[in-house]
Design goal:
This protein is of the alpha/beta class. It folds into two domains: 106 residues, Alpha-Beta Complex (Aspartate Aminotransferase, domain 1); 222 residues, Aspartate Aminotransferase, domain 2, CATH 3.40.640. Helices cover 40% and strands 16% of the residues. It has twelve helices and 13 strands. The strands form three sheets. The protein has a seven-stranded mixed beta sheet with strand order 2-8-7-6-5-3-4, sandwiched between helices. Strands 9-10-13-12 form a four-stranded antiparallel beta sheet. The chain has a two-stranded parallel sheet with strand order 1-11. α7 links the parallel β5 and β6. α10 packs parallel to α12. Bound molecules: pyridoxal-5'-phosphate. Pyridoxal-5'-phosphate binds next to α4.
Amino acid sequence: MTGPYRRPPPTGDGLRLHFNENTAGCSPKVLEAIARLKATDFAFYPDYDDVYRETAAYLGVPDDQLIITNGLDEGLIVAAIAALQRRGTDGAAPETIVIRPAFEMYAITVQSFGGTVVDVMPREDFEFPLENTLRAITERTRLVFITSPNNPTGVRIANGDIAKVSESVPPDAIVFVDEAYHDFCGDTCLPLIATHRNLVVGRTFAKAHGLAALRVGALMGSKEVMGPLQFAAPPYSLNVCAAAGLRAALTDDERLRWYVSQVLQSREQFYQFCDRQGIRYWPSGANFVLARVGEVAPELTSFLQSRGIYIRNKTGDYGCDGCIRVTTGVVDHTERCLAAMEEFLCGAR
Ligand SMILES: *Cc1c(COP(=O)(O)O)cnc(C)c1O
């Protein structure tokens, strides 16, 4: 069993490259929109008509096939409630397949609802383990989590593989495709929801749009699969600031494109650094890169922290021994991190 989630300690004004956040901050339009709210806007339960219409248009789905959630974390809870409520006739706990290494909230959420997690082990190259995923499916499978691009590897998954999983699970199971990092590669399996009725696609505005603290996520799927999720979702989970902030963020395409272009450049600089240093990395579709620095991973992480730069030591996660995960967002921030990494690695030789 996994324990409860432990929030990492505060970082003061350090450089946060350990959460894959947008370290440039959100669009100024978001701040302006929140500043325009009136006292009664805070006092009344929010009206979601506008935010649903605009977000559905932005994402390209009908608004009755969309749920906007209090962060994608809440989206995971809503999907888990909908998927795990029914036990088998033998009373056995329903099973959820988690493909490792994975975002840690999947196992925490499922186990907190009394569900059982079935782990699928990673391949050496971290490519999607389709055969082993299909083999892990049983008649008790109720939920499968697929993350594309994956966190923490950045590896992208082909829609053909997602379709195969969707076609292979029991009829009432949900296949949840977490596309938290969609904006950094453009990949999506959203077109599949028309034919694959058990797919739920999750998105967040925490990463590319810089709204992690406002807490805004989205779930999309066929009408059939969304019904039980709409039943489970709290009616007012999006607070009024998040609703106003999201609407404003969606209008600032220029800001989003700027951040995505910073990410593309940062990733490239990170790869070049690894190539020069002889460090293995996995080409990433996200705003972070996983790299295998070897047994110095914990020391490198502490060294960077002593310089006020926070990265994630992934040693201990499935298949990730000796690996670090570094957010590759704002180019200036990446350069500061790489300079400090170089200093450590030169000293270590
Ligand atoms: C960050 C992240 C989330 C959570 O997003 P929130 O909207 O902040 O709750 C979900 N899935 C993955 C893979 C993530 O990396």
